[in-house]
Design a protein that fits this description.
- The protein is an alpha/beta fold.
- It folds into two domains: 4-86, Methyltransferase, Methionine Synthase (B12-binding Domains), Chain A, domain 1; 97-227, 3-Layer(aba) Sandwich (Rossmann fold).
- 59% of the residues lie in helices and 10% in strands.
- It has ten helices and five strands, in the order H-H-H-H-E-H-E-H-E-H-H-E-H-E-H.
- The protein has helices at 4-19, 23-35, 40-60, 66-83, 110-121, 135-145, 157-160, 163-173, 188-194, 206-227; strands spanning 97-102, 125-128, 149-153, 178-182, 198-200.
- Strands 2-1-3-4-5 form a five-stranded parallel sheet, sandwiched between helices.
- Helix 1 packs across helix 3 (40-60), helix 3 (40-60) runs antiparallel to helix 4 (66-83) and helix 6 runs parallel beside helix 8.
- It is globular and about 55 Å long.
- Mean pLDDT is 83; it is low at 202-207.
């Protein structure tokens, strides 16, 4: 087992690898973490994800832009690919599957991709429909996979208007499925009005958004358990 100094060294390598969009550094750090017996979940969250949180801050400060974010995400995935097989399933009190996508007419998918990555790390089965997804495709995929959660993302007001139709159709066919909406033009008021179960407030740092979504799921599960 690595001593504390060596452990910090490896975590810093993973964190900085993400910030500096250095895929090789992330791969090396991930291999070192496994070789030294570090906990894979710790390497992911205190190394890779910690780096991505800093990237989110740089994005908010307008020091990083979309191209950098995408390269940082690639670096994160390079490390994640090596670490994930060694992960213990995170016990968030929820296990399950999620259908995720950016709604029809919208090709913005960076926030959606980061949210998807967090669900991956959290041990969810993720059905990623991609971007510019026809509205009926969300309904079909939910029925086909029987996923507990559907996440709808939109960055444009013009594409957001399709969300209530999707929510209505899914709820009609499967009232127990939980639906979350997210993206710049959305709000808690709209989520309530449209009958969504949750709203991930837009933040440049989509990681925090994803963690909130997972926490929200756990809260719903706990509330349901208490009512029984």
């Amino acid at each position: 087992m690595a001593d504390e100094t060596r452990k910090k060294e490896i975590l810093d390598k993973l964190r900085n690898g993400v910030i500096q969009y250095d895929e090789d550094a992330c791969r090396e750090g991930a291999q070192e973490a496994i070789a030294e017996g570090l906990d894979a979940n710790e390497a992911i969250f205190d190394g890779l994800v910690s780096g991505m949180e800093e990237v989110g801050r740089l994005f908010e400060a307008q020091e990083y832009f979309v191209p950098e974010i995408l390269m940082c995400a690639d670096a994160l995935y390079a490390g994640l690919e090596i670490l994930k097989p060694h992960c213990k399933q995170m016990d968030l009190g929820v296990k399950g599957s999620v259908v995720i996508g950016t709604v029809e007419g919208d090709v913005h998918d960076i926030g959606k991709n980061l949210v998807k990555m967090m669900f991956d790390v959290a041990g969810f089965t993720v059905y990623d429909l991609g971007r510019d997804v026809p509205l009926d495709k969300f309904v079909e995929e939910q029925l086909k996979t029987d996923s507990e959660l559907v996440c709808l993302s939109a960055m444009m007001t013009t594409s957001m208007v399709g969300m209530p139709k999707v929510i209505e159709k899914i709820k009609e066919k499967n009232p127990n499925c939980m639906i979350m909406i997210g993206g710049a033009p959305t709000s808690k008021e709209l989520a309530d009005k449209w009958g969504a179960d949750g709203y991930a407030e837009d933040a440049s740092n989509a990681l925090k958004e994803a963690i909130k979504m997972v926490a929200f799921l756990k809260k719903l599960r706990d509330e349901k358990a208490q009512k029984k």
